[in-house]
Amino acid sequence: MPETIPTKHLDEVISKHTRDMSGRVAAVTGTTSGTGYVCARELAKRGATVLLLNRESERSASSLKELRDAVPGAELVPVTCDLQDFESVRAAIETIRSSHDRLDVLCNNAGVMALKDRATKDGYDVQMQTNVLSHFLLTKELFALLKASDDGRIVNHSSMARLGPPLEARYFGKNGGDLGGDGTESDGFDGPRWRRYHQTKLANFVFTYGLKEKLEAAGIDNVLAVVAHPGLARTQLQVTTEKSGGMDASSDFMKQAQSQEDGATGIIRGCMDPSAKSGDFFGPERWTGFPKRLPPEEDLVTAANIQTNWDGCEAAVGAFTIG
To answer: What pTM value is reported for the model?
Structure first.
């Protein structure tokens, strides 16, 4: 892959598809690098107070310094939150509740990709807990703060990996480490670890439409459920996956990637586009390009997929009643 990938779309998105965020509070998961870092930076530039939800690490400390250098004077607030540990997520929720009576944006950005078949301390698949279950927990427990906003946004991050077979309840269960093993097929994007990843990205996608349905049924129109996908963007995600044997981050395929800045433009639109509506889906039409408003694939947002996701998440972290 080239050392630098030109950024083509970020400036247009910022100038035409965002608004002043002064006085607003946004929480973003996974801001130490990649799309989350870019989204947090751009939210801060537009005036938002940004809560940075990350595990404690040298990388999170370093990225916080970089963000503060990039946006001097910005309100950037680190909140310790390990998405692979429900206790840590609940502690982060209490931290936010104790210091804020309103939340305007919750960007469920963080994710891991194609990791080995391992259980978290809570017993769930490491990908499912990180990408899906903990974000469901954050959303349900912070929903009252989002409802207090005049324009609350729940922004979920899916990917092209959403495409594929329907959700299966077993991937949501307390059976991490017993979901097919560590294999990767010869083409690099198949095998058990990638099937687990697909389940999580499809779950992120249909969570949005489950939320949209429940918000509409409850007559709540001041909270939007939005989803985005980054296309093929070069971020730390590929590096982490490569280290665990999941893919070749230097492949010809990855040479087609767009920058992390352009990869972040979908969630940036979700967080800040003044014209956004519940159910909007932002991203490039295929692997790269401008983050358009896309139609959701009807064969993905089925009642069965939505119910499997909702039931699986509630079984793991408790009931989420919207009303």
So the answer is: 0.93
